[in-house]
Design brief:
Strand content: 35-45%
Shape: globular
Organism: Phytohabitans aurantiacus
CATH class: Mainly Beta
CATH topology: Jelly Rolls
Helix content: under 10%
InterPro entries: RmlC-like_jellyroll, RmlC_Cupin_sf
Largest sheet: 6 strands, antiparallel
Protein name: Cupin
Number of helices: 2
Strand order of the largest sheet: 1-2-3-9-4-7
Radius of gyration: 14 Å
CATH superfamily: Jelly Rolls
Distance between the termini: 40 Å
Order of helices and strands: EEEHHEEEEEE
Length: 121
């Protein structure tokens, strides 16, 4: 059986999806799985910048990611919240809102169920 290595780079992503202002996400698919690198600019929120694209009350995507830069606050449907900072690895279940904290772009690499994220319906 032949073994192979599949390599892609975010410098030449398979797809880039612009948010409704304040950022974008680059998507690469390797090994049948999609990985995304999101750039969430200051003032970005899921409600203001992704909800207009996908609809619904809360983000219904499951995220498994790593914060490279900046900070983001995630607010779950039950009201609990967590601020994410560089170097943290996180699992975020569906049913949340999120917003950038501070004046620095948050860069987040997502290995979760991200293929449909910010995909216009």
């Amino acid at each position: 059986m032949k073994k192979s290595i599949e390599v892609k780079t975010f410098d030449k992503p398979d797809e880039t999806r612009e948010f409704e202002g304040k950022g974008w996400a680059d998507f690469c698919t390797v090994g049948g799985k999609t990985v995304a690198r999101g750039h969430f600019e200051p003032g970005w929120s899921w409600e203001g910048n992704v909800k207009p694209i996908v609809g619904g009350d809360l983000c219904q995507v499951s995220h498994m990611g790593y914060v490279l830069e900046g900070r983001m606050r995630v607010i779950m449907a039950d009201g609990s919240e967590q601020e994410l900072v560089p170097g943290e690895v996180v699992a975020i279940h569906p049913g949340h809102n999120a917003e950038v904290v501070g004046n620095e772009t948050c860069v987040f690499v997502d290995f979760g169920e991200i293929a449909e994220y910010a995909l216009r319906k």
